[in-house]
Specification:
The protein has 2 domains: 163 residues, no CATH class; 340 residues, Up-down Bundle (A middle domain of Talin 1). It is built from 24 helices and 12 strands.
C-alpha cells in the first residue's frame, strides 16, 4: 500500500526526504518481504502476491484471526446461529452424524461396556457421552464441549443441577446420569471402558475422518473439518466423566475447565484466504489430484480404468497447483537471495510450465510424424500471447473497477513493456511475413467457376509452399531468418532487463521502507527456506514434466474425434489453464488498487513467450528435429498484432476503468469465437 513520506522526512535527512517524496513508498514487515515487494516491480521477475514469510498473528485483521482459531473460544455474543451455512451443515453432515452417535450409544448401553460400575448409587452407563454428543453434532452451534477438572467432578454433579440438561431430550439431567458423581478412579484402566473404546471409537473416528476430508475439500466448510478433527483427536479419547456438553447462554460465565470445542458458524466465506505453511488452501487441496493423475497415467497405461479424455483433463488440472508451487518457490528463493540469483532463477524456471508442455508435444508429434502437434503448440503460444495482452489485464480492470471507480498505473513502465511487445511480435512473425511474400501459393483443389479456361477459379486448402525445389527457399532464406530472429529476441530481452533494472530503474518509482512502521520490526520467519524452496521447485518441475507428458499422450483422441477446431483448443485450454495462478495474482493486485502489477503480469508473460519461449523452442529443434517451424497461420498473425495495438491504445493515458477492461475482454471473446468457427489447421 502506498503511504505518505511524511514520517520519513521526520526521521531522515533532506536528501532522503526528497527521495521519499518522488517515489511511491511500500510497507514491508521485514527485509525478506521488502525484497519480494521490490522483485514484484522488477521487469522479468515473477509477480507474487502471497507472503513468503509468516505474518505475526497480532498484526492480522479480526477476520483472518478467526480463520486460524482452534474453535475453543467462548464469545460473549456469538450472534444468531440460525444461518444458511449452519442449516447446510445439518443437511450434509449433522443428521447422520447424530444418528451414528445414537446407534453407538444404544450398542454401548446394552453391552458390558454400559453395565453399571463404581459405587452403588452412581450406576452411570458409559453410553451417556455418546448420547450427549449425538445432540451436540446434530446442531453444535452455540454449544461447548469442556474438559472438566478432576477436582470438580463430584462437586459439579452433586449440586442441584444448575443448567445441566440432556442434549437430545432437554430438561434436567437425572441424578443417576450425572457424570461428575462417578468415583474418582482410573477410567481407562477398566476393562469395560477399553472395550467401549475398541467398539465405538473406530466407527466414530472413521465418520469424523470422512466429514473432515469432505469439509476441507469444500474449503468454506473448514470450520466443520476442524470440529471433526478435534473431536476424533481429543474428545473421543477423554474419559467420559471429564467431558461436559453444555449449551451457552448470552451472559453465562464459562465454567472452570478447558474449552475443547465451541463453534458458532459452519461456513466462513473468507476461507479462500486460508493458507497452510504459506500455501493457499486451494493449492493444498489440488495436490492429491497430481498424485491421482500420475498413478492413473502410468499404472493404467492401457486405459482399463479410465479413458484418455479423463486422463488428459486430470493432467491439465494438475498443472494448476504445480504452477502455484513453482511460483511460490521462485518467489521464496528470489526474496532470500541477491539480485543475480533471483534473475537466474526467474529466467530459468519462469517459463518452465509452458515449455515443458510444448517440448513434450513436439517430441510426440515428431515420433508419430504428426504435424498437428506443432500446430497445437503454435496455437497455444498465440493463445497465451493474446490472453495475457487482452484477457488478463481486461479482467483485472473489470474486477478492480468494481471496487475503485478509476485506477491509475505507471504509464512509463507499461510503455517499456509495450515497446518490447511490439518488437517481439514483429520479430516472431517476421519469418511468416517473409514466407507470404516469397513463398509459392499451392492449392489442394481448384474448380473453374465460369467454365471458361480464362475465367475465375475457386480453390481450397491453399498454403504457401516453402519446400519448392527441394526446400531451397526454406533452407536458404527462411531458416537463417528464423535463427537470426531467435538470437536477436533474447538479446533484446537482456537489453530490456538492463534498461529497467540498472540504468532507468527510477521509472518504476518504487521505494521499499519500514521507517513509518514503529514497533513492527519482526524477525522474518520464512515459510520456505532457500533449500526447501529449491527442493520443492525441482520436484514440482519433475511432476510438471510427467503431467505434461501424460497430457500430450492422451490429447490425440481429443484432437481426432473433437468437432471443435484444434485452433480453439490450443488458444483456450492449453494456453490459459497454466496461467490461472498468474490470473489470480493479477486480480488480487487489482483489488488492492495496484493495477500496475496486474498489467505487468500479463505483459511480462507475453514478452517471455515471444523473447524466451519461442527462441528456446527454435533452439530445441536444432538438437531434436521436429515439425515446428516459425511460420504461423494468418489468423495467428492478425489476432496477435491487433491485440498488441489495442492494448497500447488502452494503456496510453495511464488510467483506466471497468469500461476499458470490458472492451479488452469483449475483444478477446470475439477472437475466441473466430478461433471456434475456424477450420482445423492443415495436418490435423
Amino acid at each position: 500500500a502506498a503511504v505518505s513520506p511524511l514520517s520519513c522526512c521526520q526521521q531522515h535527512s533532506q536528501e532522503v526526504c526528497e527521495s521519499c517524496v518522488v517515489k511511491t513508498t511500500l510497507t514491508a514487515e521485514n527485509a525478506v518481504e521488502a525484497n519480494k515487494l521490490s522483485n514484484n516491480y522488477k521487469f522479468g521477475f515473477k509477480k507474487w502476491k502471497s507472503h513468503v514469510t509468516a505474518r505475526p498473528r497480532e498484526d492480522r485483521s479480526e477476520i483472518v484471526k478467526e480463520l486460524y482459531s482452534d474453535l475453543n473460544v467462548i464469545r460473549g455474543s456469538g450472534g444468531s446461529t440460525g444461518t444458511c451455512g449452519n442449516v447446510l451443515y445439518l443437511l450434509l453432515f449433522g443428521w447422520w452424524l447424530s444418528l451414528l452417535y445414537v446407534l453407538v450409544a444404544a450398542v454401548v448401553f446394552v453391552t458390558v461396556v454400559g453395565a453399571p460400575y463404581g459405587e452403588a448409587d452412581a450406576r452411570v452407563p458409559a453410553g451417556r457421552l455418546c448420547w450427549d454428543l449425538a445432540g451436540y453434532f446434530l446442531w453444535p452451534f452455540g454449544k461447548a464441549i469442556q474438559k472438566v477438572p478432576k477436582s470438580r467432578r463430584v462437586l459439579g454433579a452433586c449440586e442441584a443441577g444448575a443448567g445441566e440438561s440432556s442434549a437430545l431430550l432437554g430438561g434436567p439431567v437425572p441424578r443417576r446420569w450425572r457424570p461428575w458423581c462417578w468415583a474418582d478412579t482410573g477410567h481407562w484402566q477398566r476393562a469395560g471402558a477399553m472395550a467401549g473404546l475398541c467398539l465405538g471409537y473406530p466407527a466414530l473416528a472413521l465418520a469424523h475422518g470422512l466429514v473432515c476430508v469432505a469439509a476441507w475439500l469444500l474449503v468454506f466448510l473448514i470450520p466443520v473439518a476442524k470440529l471433526s478433527a478435534r473431536t476424533a483427536a481429543r474428545v473421543l479419547l477423554l474419559p467420559p466423566e471429564q467431558v461436559l456438553v453444555r449449551r451457552l447462554r448470552m451472559t453465562e460465565v464459562p465454567l472452570e475447565g478447558e474449552v475443547i470445542l465451541c463453534c458458532y458458524r459452519a461456513v466462513n466465506p473468507y476461507y479462500y484466504k486460508y493458507a497452510v505453511d504459506g500455501i493457499n488452501v486451494f493449492a493444498v487441496n489440488l495436490l492429491p489430484l497430481v498424485l491421482v493423475t500420475l498413478v492413473l497415467g502410468y499404472v493404467d497405461s492401457h486405459n482399463r480404468l479410465t479413458s484418455s479424455p479423463i486422463k488428459f483433463t486430470l493432467a491439465l488440472l494438475s498443472i494448476m497447483p504445480l504452477s502455484y508451487y513453482i511460483g511460490m518457490a521462485i518467489a521464496s528463493i528470489s526474496a532470500q537471495s541477491n539480485f543475480a540469483v533471483g534473475a537466474v532463477v526467474n529466467a530459468t524456471f519462469g517459463s518452465i510450465t509452458e515449455l515443458t508442455f510444448y517440448i513434450t508435444a513436439l517430441i510426440k508429434g515428431s515420433r508419430e510424424g504428426n504435424r498437428c502437434y506443432a500446430e497445437i503448440v503454435k496455437s497455444a503460444l498465440t493463445g497465451t500471447l493474446v490472453g495475457c495482452v487482452l484477457f488478463v489485464p481486461g479482467l483485472c480492470m473489470v474486477i478492480g473497477g468494481i471496487r475503485h471507480q478509476e485506477q491509475r498505473f505507471n504509464s512509463r513502465s507499461a510503455g517499456v513493456s509495450s515497446a518490447l511487445l511490439f518488437l517481439s511480435v514483429g520479430g516472431v512473425f517476421a519469418p511468416t511475413l517473409f514466407s507470404k511474400v516469397y513463398g509459392k501459393l499451392v492449392c489442394g483443389e481448384c474448380h473453374n467457376v465460369t467454365q471458361n479456361p480464362l475465367g475465375h477459379y475457386l480453390c481450397h486448402n491453399c498454403h504457401f509452399d516453402l519446400m519448392e525445389n527441394n526446400g531451397t527457399l526454406y533452407y536458404s532464406h527462411v531458416q537463417p531468418l528464423v535463427y537470426t530472429v531467435s538470437l536477436l529476441l533474447p538479446a533484446a530481452y537482456l537489453i530490456g532487463l538492463f534498461f529497467t533494472l540498472k540504468t532507468h530503474s527510477h521509472i518504476y518509482d518504487i521505494h521499499i521502507s519500514d521507517c513509518h512502521m514503529p514497533g513492527h520490526h519482526h524477525s522474518a520467519v520464512v515459510h520456505w527456506s532457500r533449500w526447501r524452496a529449491l527442493v520443492i521447485l525441482l520436484l514440482s518441475t519433475l511432476c510438471m514434466s510427467a503431467c505434461a507428458d501424460l497430457a500430450t499422450e492422451h490429447i490425440s483422441p481429443i484432437l481426432t474425434n473433437s468437432t471443435i477446431s484444434q485452433y480453439f483448443i490450443g488458444v483456450t485450454v492449453l494456453a490459459m489453464v497454466p496461467e490461472l495462478p498468474e490470473i489470480v495474482n493479477g486480480i488480487q493486485f487489482a483489488l488492492q488498487n495496484n493495477l500496475s502489477l496486474s498489467i505487468e503480469i500479463g505483459n511480462c508473460i507475453a514478452v517471455q513467450v515471444c523473447m524466451l519461449q519461442i527462441p528456446i523452442l527454435v533452439l530445441f529443434t536444432i538438437f531434436y528435429p521436429t515439425n515446428f517451424t516459425l511460420v504461423f497461420s494468418d489468423l495467428h498473425v492478425y489476432a496477435s498484432m491487433f491485440s498488441v495495438v489495442l492494448m497500447n491504445y488502452i494503456f496510453m493515458d495511464g488510467k483506466c476503468d471497468y469500461f476499458q477492461g470490458t472492451v479488452l475482454v469483449m475483444v478477446y471473446f470475439i477472437l475466441l469465437a473466430v478461433y471456434f468457427f475456424a477450420p482445423s489447421p492443415s495436418g490435423c
